[in-house]
């Protein structure tokens, strides 16, 4: 039906393509993963996805994102907030870190 196709088009337009980059000692050997996810996805749901992909416990996951235009990464530090709230968009890189993996300088 036309209505169904319209809904699919709306959903497709709300999807963003991001790169999930493992950035912790325990998962450094895992490859980066490209994913298409909804902009409305909550940070906690992205952490759950990262747990499935990289095997890191959700409680240990810390996410930082960069859109390629910023000199520093932004922490995704509110589990209840949507990715759109932080400005995560297509082409963003989200680094997956382990809170317990503090590297000493």
From TrEMBL:
InterPro entries named in the record: Ubiquitin-like_dom, Ubiquitin-like_domsf, Ubl_TBCE
Residues annotated as domain Ubiquitin-like: 32-101
Pfam families reported in the protein's UniProt record: Ubiquitin_2
The organism's place on the tree of life at top rank: Eukaryota
Protein name: CAP-Gly domain-containing protein
């Amino acid at each position: 039906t036309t209505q169904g196709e319209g809904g699919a088009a709306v959903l497709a337009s709300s999807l963003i393509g991001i790169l999930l980059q493992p950035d912790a000692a325990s998962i450094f050997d895992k490859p980066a993963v490209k994913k298409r996810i909804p902009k409305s996805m909550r940070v906690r749901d992205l952490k759950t996805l990262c747990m499935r992909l990289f095997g890191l416990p959700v409680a240990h996951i810390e996410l930082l994102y960069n859109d390629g235009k910023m000199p520093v990464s932004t922490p995704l530090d509110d589990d209840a907030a949507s990715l759109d709230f932080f400005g995560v968009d297509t082409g963003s890189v989200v680094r997956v870190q382990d809170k317990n993996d503090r590297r000493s300088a």
